[in-house]
Amino acid sequence: MKNPTLKNLTNPNFGKPPDTQNELLMKLGEPHIASFNYMVNEGLTKAIQNLSPVEFVVNERRVKFVITGECRQRNATYSGKFLIDVEWYVDGQLQQPFTKDLGNIPIMIKSNRCNLENLNPEKLVKHGEHEQEWGGYFVVSGLEKLIRMLLMTRRNYPIAIKRSGWKGRGSLFSDVGVSIRCVMQDETATNNVLHYVTDGTAKLMFSNNKVLYYAPLCLLLKSLCNYTDQYIYQKLIKGFEDDLYYVDCCQNMLRLIHLEKLHTHEDCKAYLGKMFRVKFYECPSWYTDIQVADLMLKKCILIHLDSNEDKFNLLVFMTQKLFKFAQDKCQIEGADAVMMQEVLQGGHLYLQIIKEKLQVWLSQLRRSFESLALSTKFKFAQTDILQAAKRTGGFEQSLRLFLATGNIQSISGLGLMQDKGLCIIAENINRMRYMSHFRAVHRGSFFQEMRTTEARQLLPDAWGFICPVHTPDGSPCGLLNHLTMKCIITDTPDQKKVNNIPIILSEVGMVPINYVSSKDINNSYVVQLDGKIIGYLLKEIAPKVVNKLRLLKIEGKEVPHTLEIVLVPFKKIKAQYPGIFLFTGPSRMMRPLKNLYVDKIELVGTFEQVYLDICVCPDEAYAGVTTHMELSKIEFMSNLAQLIPMPDCNQSPRNMYQCQMGKQTMGTPCHNWDLQSETKLYRLQTPSTPLFRPVHHDEISLDDFAMGTNAIVAVISYTGYDMEDAMIINKASEERGLAHGSIYKSEFVQLDHESSYFSRNPESEHLAKHLDEDGLPYIGRRMIEGEPLYSYFNGDRSMYVVVGFKGKEECFIHSIKMCGTFAAKSNKCFCITYRVPRNPSVGDKFASRAGQKGICSQKWPSEDLPFTETGLVPDIVFNPHGFPSRMTIAMMIELMAGKSAALHGLVHDATPFRFTEDDTAINYFGRLLEMGGYNYYGTETLYSGIDGREMSAMIFFGIVHYQRLRHMVSDKWQVRSTGPVDVVTKQPIKGRKKGGGVRFGEMERDALISHGVSFLLQDRLLNCSDKTTVNICIKCGSILSPITVIVKKSDKSHLVETKKSCRLCNDGSNISQLQIPYIFKFFVAELASCNIRVKINCENI
Question: Which E.C. number(s) belong to this protein (predicted)?
């Protein structure tokens, strides 16, 4: 492993774009780009081939290459035209095809349809991009939108599951079933579940347009293939003749089909077609019941298999596994284990949405053509189909809406468990935050609402694939995870190599499925390739064949190098259902390991890893048992977890906290500040490189986006202002620029009328010091609330208009960009970016890289702070009570390491597991301190800054890399006297921007009561909130029954007067007034609507 270096100080080419991009950083966007490239290269073609055909009776242009930076700067969408060629037939005769433009659809950055593809760093910088741009996202309305990667059930593998909710699916249904998520080559997905019914039968669940249906197993088996009952029976019980219960169940299921008078293959298909004709409305009216059944079997039953015979064989396998599972003869597998999961990539989801939109467009074309056919002038010609196509719209808006909101409106549901939250904004708060989005995998919003914790648990099979450290605390804990650094997501393999696998297996002893006997099945493993049963392999030769296939996989010439080989062995105890399962499809998680037999790198999958023996280091290997070894000791951590200095010396929660706080740090999110138009960006003006850092810090070039400050820290309880994680900052250090930051805010201004333009009124001379001749402010000008911000000439009203600055905070004009559109005519628009300086202030949040977060409690004068013998004054005073309870030993080591690095001009490696109990880190850095003339333990003698006396205690003193978090008092302070109230409750609204009130909760209530000032509660919760006066009837105790009645003063007079009366008592003499919270009146009215009467005891009023 390499050592970290201060390469930016010694590199003569620093500041120049490198010749090639960083491979580690490029891998961040690789799975997203690969899935999008598959969509445009192969997926769309396959999706169109699988669309249901629709049958019915009846100026000058210039090409301009747009770069993503342009779209970001002017809030536009980076998109390209989506053109389709439509073939249409009349009575089976091909007519003249035509081309239809379905609008502009967003294009993924750095895909093979993007103008940035294959550009070297120098050209990327020339186009205003970062030299290490890795892509993998979309630009929609100027925002970088990322399709979230979701963890889905492993494709094309029958999983034994037990769910209590299945009992409610029908009469006699049990909680036992075998589920399979079927995925076609065009990534169309659907779920089938073979349910065990307690009367000894089985029913298959399938869905169409989000509606679930259940069909008897034998009805489907007889519909799939024209086999006799005897053949079906023999297939079902082959190898299970000794299981009398299962044999009886198979006989009973076949018998029940005949009781329904369904005797032949045609009878069963006709019955299915008759039942489902109304559900498949896309079928033409002249389709027979058998044709409808064929369509149903193709679109809903095991859709990943093309042949009905293959579907028949897999259903038989699922039935055998189901009854073994129902009889408790094999283990439950479950869908929450990582070995049973894969990743839904953005490009594949995008492909599914486009395919469904194309199918909807075909239906629109049919309806449009049929409406034209009703016209008397209709002639069946080329112009008619073109006119019908012209009437149909595209789906440009729906795709933009999907990426902008993350919500989909799908007819079929796309095999997902959610239709919201599928897209996120790739927030660029800092480099760590930006990187983490591209490696994040989410379990799904459905599981966030579940009360059980099964989906959140970190199981052993996740080792090496899911980072155990990098997950947020709170509600998304365990659901939002991150892939480890070396974990890859497989791409679509070469189909020729996949086709070679059955041939190779046949050559080494695999028996085809139709040539195996019952005797051989009992002594053989079933062999499945991507959910298709291709044969059986004898137990005796199975391990050798698997090893042979593994060697071919490592070479990658005859079979894909991403092939996943799983041998689930037969065991005498209850275990997982045995077999040999081969997976070659995309979206699987794999990671590199060293194969000890051939000493080469092999990619291993999640399911495959469970049945391998893997050691971490050579000392743990057992000859003849251990098969693989980890490439390094830190392979199980994500990118962000590997940036923590010596996490093996910290308490585990502190490492989790650092992964979260690292993503909230002010740093250097970008280099092209003048080209940015994001709503808000945080910038640390005076960053520094850490002197104690892991090697991974250099591998991903994090110094190019620095995000921290090296501070001199004294661990001493010097004042009362550093209790409870608070910290004191040296006022002189803050004035010299310690952790000084800025916020960049951008806003767009667009004029209402096309005839309007930006200009300064020449008659208003006082505007010259504020605005330039073009009506826009000067670059670098300081802005204060109320000052002129810009001026324009209103063409509609023929007058000059000056707009003032409305910001509450003092800021500076950083840049102004005029923004255009692709339209021939458009309203004038510009983007203005403000720079808001932010010095550290009391209440701002800071944290070390060991998860030691703290609030700045005071900026202490430098002359009052303690100083060392050499005259050093600390930048930060840290309370020593923060170490024992948090157990962040890594911060203590960093304090010594940073001090020794500064003394000797070194940079130390903070990669975990480098030191041992025999060779400790403290001893190593302590000796370096001794060599520099300092105390071995990192302590120093300090002198009081107040009276100059020497302190009796030795003070721990050194250098720590501190992070300034984006949580600042200037953004969060809130005060209110009077302001807007809620229309319904009459209480102050919430929200700082709206002028809302400060929340007064039960903890604040308890605090006032405990301080003996409980009368203040009346002021806070009544007088300053929703105090109101109501009428109350003393007699009946109701506040709803008193009403105001209008009566005449006399019969002869037209004058009227108002009187108060109780509707319940018919008396107005007992009505009085009472001051109560309005919310209580509202509550009483709601209870009354539920026929509940509230009576107030008026005796003490």
Answer: 2.7.7.6
- The pLDDT of residue 1086 is above 60: yes
Q: Determine the structural domain holding residue 396 and report its residue range.
A: 23-147+345-426
CATH of the domain at 222: 3.90.1110.10
CATH number of the domain within which 586 lies: 3.90.1070.20
Query: Shortest CA distance to 1007 belongs to which of 996, 995, 1020, 994?
Result: 1020
Structural tokens at position 791: 């001026």
Per residue in 276-318, pLDDT (tens digit) is: 888 887 788 888 999 999 999 999 999 999 999 999 999 999 9
- What are the pLDDT digits (tens) for 383-424? 878 888 888 888 889 999 999 999 998 888 888 888 899 999
Cβ partners under 8 Å of residue 49, min gap 6: 186
Long-range contacts: 900-906, Cβ < 8 Å, 24+?
900/925, 900/928, 900/929, 900/932, 901/691, 901/692, 901/959, 902/691, 902/959, 903/928, 903/929, 903/932, 903/934, 904/928, 904/931, 904/932, 906/691
Which position has the higher pLDDT, 800 or 393? Answer: 800
At residue 103, the 3 state secondary structure works out as strand
Pull the structure tokens for residue 726.
């608070």
Q: In the structure encoding, which two tokens stand for residue 1026, read together? A: 């929703």
In a domain, 973, yes or no: no
Average pLDDT for residues 25-44, to the nearest whole number?
Answer: 83
Residue 219 CB-half CA count within 13 A? 25
User: What DSSP assignment string belongs to 935-988?
Assistant: -TTSEE-EE-TTT-PBPSS-EEEEEEEEEEBS--HHHH----SS--B-TTT-SB
Residue 192 has a pLDDT of 95
pLDDT tens digits, one per residue of 183-241: 999 899 999 999 999 999 999 999 998 899 999 999 999 999 999 999 999 999 998 98
Could you give the C-alpha distances from 744 to 92, 621, 741, 974, in angstroms and in order? 63, 54, 10, 21
Question: d(Cα 429, Cα 670) in Å, to the nearest integer?
Answer: 9
Which two tokens mark 945? 């800054």
Q: Are residues 755 and 899 in the same domain?
A: no
Do strands 532-538 and 564-568 pair parallel, antiparallel, or not at all (unpaired)? unpaired
Quick one: CA torsion of 882, 886, 888, 889, rounded to 10 degrees?
80
C-alpha distances in Å from residue 720, one per residue of 723, 866, 880 = 6, 15, 13
Three-state SS letters, 210-279: CEEEEEEHHHHHHHHCCCCHHHHHHHHHCCCCCCHHHHHHHHHHHHHHHHCCCCCHHHHHHHHHHHHCCC
Rounded Cα distance between 371 and 1090, Å, is: 52
Kind and range of the H or E element at 903?
Answer: helix 889-904
Identify whether residues 301 and 161 lie together within a single domain. yes
The residue length of the chain stands at: 1101
In the chain, the number of structural domains is 6
Residue 83 in any domain: the answer is yes
